[in-house]
Amino acid sequence: MSEQLNVPTMAEFMAAGKKPEVLFWVGCAGSFDDRAKKITKAFVKLLHRSKVEFAVLGTEESCTGDPAKRAGNEFLFQMQAVTNIEVLNAYEIKKIVTACPHCFNTIKNEYPGLGGSYEVMHHTQFLKSLLDEGRLTIEGGQFKGKRITFHDPCYLGRGNGVYEAPRELIRKLDAELVEMKSCKSRGLCCGAGGAQMFKDAEPGDKEVNIARTEQAIDVKPEIIAAGCPFCNTMMTDGVKNKEREADIAVMDIAELIANAQDL
Amino acid sequence: MMYLPQILFAIVLLASIGYFARNVSKLRRNITLGHDVDVSDNTSQRWKNMAMIALGQSKMVKRPIAGALHVIVYVGFVVINIEVLEIIIDGLAGTHRIFSPIGATYGVLIGIFEILAVLVFVAVVVFWLRRNTLKLKRFWANEMKGWPKDDANYILYFEMVLMGLFLTMNATDLEFQAMNSGNVISQFIAPWFSSFSESSIHIIERSAWWLHIVGILIFLNYLYFSKHLHILLAFPNTYYGRIKPQGQFENLEAVTSEVKMMMDPDADPYAAPEAGAEDEVPAKFGASDVQDLSWVNLLSAYTCTECGRCTSECPANQTGKKLSPRKIMMDTRDRLVEVGKNIDANNGEFKDDGKQLLDDYITKEELWACTSCNACVEACPVSIDPLNIIMQMRQYLVMEQSAAPMELNNMMTNIENNGAPWPYNQMDRLNWKNEA
């Protein structure tokens, strides 16, 4: 697939005197991380397929400040937040969708207190709403009957109580959804949250992502579905560590749906 | 002489209530050492949380075995204590079973108490076995050595003895046995004493009666020193507990005002501080000691029952890191008690003792191991938020001491310079759309 994706920016919409239906907040991982960029593209394809008029901020987007805040740097977080809010408010953004639960949580919960109130949706919630509105159809395709287990991202699940949207999308693929020992409100972290993604772990007897991958392998999945670029990295590393990358794939839900339709 | 037992009873009762009240006021003083937080919002949701989580034990039963056993002990404790009302009236008025003339209802009530007493006894024995024989992992962690382990066992022994005394008291009460109403359990214990003379049986009954009520009063006063404070504090703690989504962390107001000033194009960077402003103590960011935490954090520290559900769900702890959310709460309480004693010893004022919560109790290694996943918060049966304390201490480390691990400093420098945690140029943010 070498065709260039059509990804309009807010600036372009503004120049044309138009407003998009929704702003797609890509996030740092979705913009720069090679693995996460694939998720971004899959989601963009689904947006096009569903005829959603969307825009991105492009070079005007900046880190939400989540890792800084969780690392204890409230200054840096609020500087980032206030800067982003200025941009978002200048474009009169009302609705935001993002494929990163950290961006989702921060913009949804922590920006309102700093002057930025928007309707914020995780991409699995947004895809679910497109499905309900009949704008998106999901086919099982290559995933029909496959054993898929869903790893709950902490900031989507426990953090914001979203457990069902991603699961309903997986069921729509006619896949066999299997639950790990720790799931939903008791889901085990992948080990990346709280700024852990950016540092080595403290001394211990195991890495958190290995512990979580073991829980996943226990239910014999063909695919580990994720809804967060950081979880995706951690689980992919875990699967590699267990030398199971030949028979277990780690995929974002957006990728599952897009691939099922050969997008 | 006739009134001697009543006078004695009144003295014991007043003394124990007095001592308890004194400790409650200390508890209050210690808790209010924390900074104020606004908890006046969402009143109806807060009442609902208290009703569901504390009164209704909704989170306890998430672990069915421990949950069911706890419900028995909890219901037994609340219901059997109705009997204490009669005991206190009897003790003060010199009467005997003052409510017994109400007839059949009395028998039904005592019958329920007796059945509950047996159930509580059994549940407490099972609790003891789980702790000491099955050695469940969460009861044998590092922070449970010494006093915390003993404390838990003392309470179990206490409850066994109290339930035993209650049943003995009923079994040796000849008048009560003669009523043959409500002695559903004690009628089977009564024959054990059949070889005793009537006067010996009476002495046993009086002894059991006295030991039972004195035991309850000792238990009441033991609470202040024990993890068992949760039987009282679980109620306010679930009321004041987290209402917002778990993922939402507070925005520090002190930082907001500084950030707003920095972002304000009209702000005069050379403006002289307003008159009197110099006297203000600059705000301290984050927490290095208990006084820097909120009073809700401190209330939670006293509420913690050290059950360890938080620690057993913690991904860092599960993978062998030093972090244990339970230890965070226990350390906070231990330090708070130490600060409280310091204040008592220094005429109501805290004298610097060269110690603090950070480093002397909670190490940086523990704080940096947290993934902020909220598993501990979700697991707590009484709405304690250990993560909130961890985050406040991280804020102190980063904003007051610039003591973040180097890799995190790199990450933060990247965000500052190029708007991403990695060293990529912000101008390249949309390059992905052109990449195959």
Automatic annotation (TrEMBL), chain A:
In its keyword annotation, does this UniProt entry include Iron?
Answer: yes
Keyword Coiled coil assigned to the entry: answer is no
Show the coiled coil region(s). Answer: none
The superkingdom of the source organism is: Bacteria
Which Gene Ontology cellular-component terms appear in the entry? plasma membrane
Q: Where is the Cysteine-rich domain?
A: 22-108, 148-235
According to the UniProt entry, where is the signal peptide?
none
Task: Kindly list the GO molecular function terms attached to this UniProt entry.
Answer: 4 iron, 4 sulfur cluster binding; metal ion binding; oxidoreductase activity
Known Pfam families for this protein? CCG (PF02754)
Key words of the record:
4Fe-4S, Iron, Iron-sulfur, Metal-binding, Oxidoreductase
Name it.
(Fe-S)-binding protein
Organism name: Subsaximicrobium wynnwilliamsii
Lineage, opening ranks:
Bacteria, Pseudomonadati, Bacteroidota, Flavobacteriia, Flavobacteriales
Automatic annotation (TrEMBL), chain B:
| Membrane-spanning segments | 6-24, 65-89, 109-129, 154-172, 207-225
Instruction: Return the InterPro entries for the record.
Output: 4Fe4S_Fe-S-bd, 4Fe4S_Fe_S_CS, HdrC_iron-sulfur_subunit, Helical_ferredxn, NarG-like_sf
The record ties this protein, via Pfam families, to: Fer4_9
Question: Could you name the domain of life of the organism this protein comes from?
Answer: Bacteria
Mind listing the UniProt keywords for this protein, alphabetically? 4Fe-4S, Iron, Iron-sulfur, Membrane, Metal-binding, Oxidoreductase, Transmembrane, Transmembrane helix
Q: Where is the 4Fe-4S ferredoxin-type domain?
A: 295-326, 359-389
A cellular-component GO term for this protein: plasma membrane
Instruction: State a single Gene Ontology molecular function.
Output: metal ion binding
Methyltransferase as a keyword? no
What protein am I looking at?
4Fe-4S dicluster domain-containing protein
